[in-house]
Write a structure and sequence with these properties.
The chain is mainly beta and 368 residues long. It is built from four helices and 30 strands. It has helices spanning 2-23, 25-36, 52-60, 136-140; strands spanning 46-49, 66-69, 73-76, 80-82, 86-89, 97-100, 108-113, 120-128, 156-161, 166-184, 197-213, 218-226, 230-234, 237-242, 245-247, 251-256, 263-267, 270-272, 277-282, 288-291, 294-296, 299-303, 308-311, 314-316, 318-322, 326-330, 333-334, 342-346, 349-353, 356-357. The protein has a 30-stranded parallel sheet that branches. Strand 1, helix 3 (52-60) and strand 2 form a beta-alpha-beta unit. The N and C termini lie far apart (113 Å).
Length: 368
């Protein structure tokens, strides 16, 4: 009998203790879950912003290392100047849109200034310059050398000036009448031997210069430039561009002269359906290599250029060389039905080695 009473008392005590446990289990779980979170994720290091003033305040707070833009749309009222290491990330390209305020004549969205602005990451948003469609008809009637910048405005989506170790990823650039992404003066001195900029997964449309590389030792990959004036403007040196598509621009890729001239290489890229030129170079005194690329329905032209090489490419266009020095096309397949195998050489040298036609026709005319 006594044992039975003891057992009943234990049951009552168990139920008594269980009731508050059940009532507060959710709060206890939340408490223990919060205790398990890493301390570095506290608000002292990460800021979530949904308005332009909040974004400006977060940039001014030097203790914040990552700024998360958690809104779908934000009007950028003035230039966002970055002079310290920081990561700014949106909800995704095509999800978060940063609109440049045209009512205030604000012409620059992000300005990254070195050397204090080294180690900056921008990712996962769209920059919209809110400009109308570019007047390509006027541009097409102008001189092919787009360095004259006929019809160009003064906007910049992202301007990188003298900074290095910059990462730009998963960003859309649209409706910008100047430069979508402009990088200038990266590295400097012996630090030039380090990769200075990493650009990946950039989609550019309706910009004057979609991407302009004046820097050295940059890595550009997975670019998609469509319906711009210049899909890629290359005036720097030792940059590498790979796995990218430049289609339906006035000039798909422009290679120009500058402090270091345009030299480096393109690999596994497409340069198709340009309004004027697939690849156009003017007064470039170093060298440029194209490997495994497709060039269709628009022409290649090198004026006063040195040492261009095409290897393992598919060429369905004419090739024009004016002055300059030695150029070579080797181990490439020509498609005669789309105009491949037509050459014009004046004052320069174009070597043609081990090329063949896709139809199996005699390759005598595309080798020398």
């Amino acid at each position: 009998m006594l044992l039975h009473k003891i057992i009943n008392m234990k049951k009552i005590l168990f139920v008594f203790l269980l009731i508050p446990t059940l009532c507060f289990s959710q709060s206890k779980a939340s408490f223990w879950f919060s205790m398990l979170q890493p301390k570095y994720s506290s608000s002292a290091y990460v800021a979530e912003v949904s308005t332009y003033p909040e974004l400006v305040a977060a940039l001014s707070n030097t203790s914040i290392r990552q700024i998360r833009i958690i809104t779908y749309d934000m009007l950028i009222e003035d230039t966002l100047t970055i002079i310290r290491p920081v990561s700014i990330v949106g909800l995704g390209a095509g999800v978060t849109t940063l609109r440049m305020d045209t009512s205030t004549n604000m012409n620059l969205c992000f300005y990254i200034s070195g050397p204090n602005g080294n180690n900056v990451t921008l990712s996962d948003f769209t920059i919209d310059g809110l400009q109308p469609a570019i007047d390509t008809a006027t541009i097409l009637s102008a001189a092919v050398d787009i360095v004259t910048n006929v019809g160009m405005g003064d906007q910049y989506g992202i301007y990188i000036d003298g900074a290095k170790e910059i990462r730009i990823k998963n960003i859309n650039l649209k409706n910008i009448d100047g430069y979508g992404l402009f990088s200038d003066g990266l590295g400097g001195g012996s630090s030039n031997w380090q990769p200075s900029i990493f650009v990946d997964q950039i989609y550019s449309i309706n910009c004057y210069h979609a991407i302009a590389a004046i820097n050295e030792y940059g890595l550009y990959s997975n670019l998609r430039s469509i319906r711009n004036v210049s899909g890629f403007t290359y005036i720097g040196g030792n940059n590498r561009i790979s796995n990218s598509v430049f289609v339906d621009n006035v000039i798909n890729t422009y290679i120009g002269s500058g402090p270091n001239d345009g030299h480096g290489g393109f690999a596994n890229c497409s340069f198709n359906h340009a309004g004027k030129k697939a690849i156009y170079g003017n007064n470039v005194g170093v060298a440029m290599l194209f490997t495994g690329c497709d060039i269709f329905y628009s022409d290649i032209e090198a004026v006063d250029c040195w040492g261009w090489g095409f290897a393992g490419c598919t060429i369905a266009c004419s090739v024009t060389v004016t002055n300059g020095t030695q150029h070579q096309i080797s181990g490439s397949v020509f498609s005669a039905g789309e105009g491949g195998g037509t050459f014009s050489v004046t004052g320069g040298v174009l070597s043609l080695k081990n090329n063949f036609y896709n139809t199996g026709a005699s390759a005598a005319g595309i080798n020398n």
